[in-house]
Amino acid sequence: MSNKPIFSFDSLPVAEPPGYAPPRQWISRPLLPDVMGTAVTITSYNMLADVYCQPDLYTNCPLWALEWGYRRDRLMHQLSSRNSDFFCLQEVEKSEYENFWKVEMEKRGYAGEYTVKTRYFMGSDDHVDGCATFYNTKKSRFLEFLKCRFVLLSASHLHFNDSLVSQLQEKFLTQVPRGSVRLKRGTVAQILLFSSIPSNSAMPNEPQTQFYLANCHLFWDPRFPDVKLQQSLELMRQLEKEEFKMELPAVICGDFNSEPTSAVYEFMSMGRVRGDHPDLQNDPENIIRSIGVQNINHKIKLASVYKEVMGSEPKFTNYTDHYAGCLDYIWVSSSMIIPIKVSVLPSEREIESCGDMRLPNPRYPSDHLALDCTLLISPPRYISYPRSMLRVCWKLEFSLKSCR
């Protein structure tokens, strides 16, 4: 780093930036020695796109630490220091993906897939963000890519005139059903199919584990729990359709913008939402009522990786001057994937050790914290499993039905 002093925009000199965030500790869960599978390490991270990093929102962070060039360097270190097999990233601007992230990650042996948000009322998409998924090309082979734009899927439930909405200009909003407009948030998800590359070339018959990896970013506004629930339903409908065709395990990463008490969390973890959930009472445009509570369900048995390993969700994954809470998760289909270990998120004290500031700050470049996990993914179902694999492994149990 340059020895030149760094100046804030008010021309007052400040100290040299602190070092990078320290490496995290990992917590592992005990495993039976004969459990089979392919181990993969996954990172999910909302990187705070530059377009959203406004000084008036993060007043305690010095202006120089909010500058994109500075934050991008810190974000790159967050990724390059991890050596994960997969990176599921949210809030990646399109131009930055094409001109920086894709180039830099390719240098490090990763290939990527990108999906930009849909914006109906923006003249240019240069600074529109989206989801990017990178994978280590030496360890995994990319097979199939399915974009999941929630904005295009809503009409299947609500029977609104989606072709009219796609032609909207702001002055014509009154011509379109309000519920349809409420759902037009531009948020996206990715569903990708991967196959593992056998690690030992001397074993030509080594099974290639296939699995789906989803990367999503739900709508941010806490006033719209109905929209977020509808988006999570659309994601699971798409994933359920793909999973049903091939009976493969699935990993779902992302910023769900929903706390553990939310209807979205209950839906993901339980496969349904109880009718008296408080979030269902906030349905001003009858979106949930149009779908029907009884139809808000999915059949993929999911487990939250951090809760499985740590016993509870992190205290927070988003930690700003105005809010602290858990919004980010990594979900796995629990019948075929065992969470092995997770990285321990920094505490309030560790975060604020950099000048008594929350996120972002000069050491941590985003308002979110990255989630890391190592998973053991079962081989294809047609392989004969040893009977010992049917034993209980801590809180996870393989049944004869799921291991057939």
From TrEMBL:
<dbReference type="InterPro" id="IPR036691">
    <property type="entry name" value="Endo/exonu/phosph_ase_sf"/>
</dbReference>
<protein>
    <recommendedName>
        <fullName>Endonuclease/exonuclease/phosphatase domain-containing protein</fullName>
    </recommendedName>
</protein>
<dbReference type="Pfam" id="PF03372">
    <property type="entry name" value="Exo_endo_phos"/>
</dbReference>
<dbReference type="InterPro" id="IPR050410">
    <property type="entry name" value="CCR4/nocturin_mRNA_transcr"/>
</dbReference>
<dbReference type="InterPro" id="IPR005135">
    <property type="entry name" value="Endo/exonuclease/phosphatase"/>
</dbReference>
<dbReference type="GO" id="GO:0000175">
    <property type="term" value="F:3'-5'-RNA exonuclease activity"/>
</dbReference>
<feature type="domain" description="Endonuclease/exonuclease/phosphatase">
    <location>
        <begin position="44"/>
        <end position="368"/>
    </location>
</feature>
